[in-house]
Amino acid sequence: MLRNICIALIGIVWVLSVGFGISKLYNYEYKSGPVGHVAKQWPSGSIIQPHKNLFQLVMVVHPQCPCTRATIGELELIMAKSQGQVEATVLFIKLRGFDQQWVKTDLYTAVRRIPGVNAIIDVGGAEARVFGGTTSGQTFLYNAQGQLVFMGGITASRGHSGDNVGRSTIVALINNQPVSVHSTPFFGCPLMNETRVGIAQKRIL
Predict the structure, then answer these.
(1) Which of 25, 85, 121, 197 is deepest in the core (most CB within 10 A)?
(2) Largest interatomic CA distance in the chain
(3) Model confidence over 157-195: pLDDT tens digits?
(4) What is the CB neighbour count within 10 angstroms for residue 23?
(5) pTM higher than 0.70 for the full model?
(6) Cα dist. 32→7, 64, 96, 188 in Å?
């Protein structure tokens, strides 16, 4: 009898543990980043000089965020489907106290290889704040008149590649096709987070 009770208790604990783990994983993958004060019109304080006849795409990236790798892959697809109609800039946050090598990760190298995309090292996240960026992978699209027409993520969940509403919406907007949404959830590391992968790399003393 006692043995059966022990087995039952172990089973209950196991089920609860699995359920807790699944809920934590789900929360990690699908919890959207916070929305900051997003610039609805192209910010005059930006260092980026927009082309008057093209869409402008701006993405903010934490260079040590592993889940942003999928976002960079989606950006490459967007650029391939929108050639000549959009200029893209990816802002790589450089937290104060870290050197250039902390920023120049494989993500930085991958972005620089995408035709039509400019990679900028954003010291202290000053430029990201101008646009209202809070989360790695957060993407902003402005039309030729400087109006914000899309803000959000271009992956379906954290670190997952594949068809998603964000990517298809941006491509549709750039190609002057109707869309049903103008924002999507965005998933990634907080931009100003110092506790991500690689944080033990060289600090400037």
Answers:
(1) 85
(2) 79
(3) 766 788 999 999 999 999 999 999 999 998 899 998 765
(4) 10
(5) yes
(6) 39, 18, 25, 8
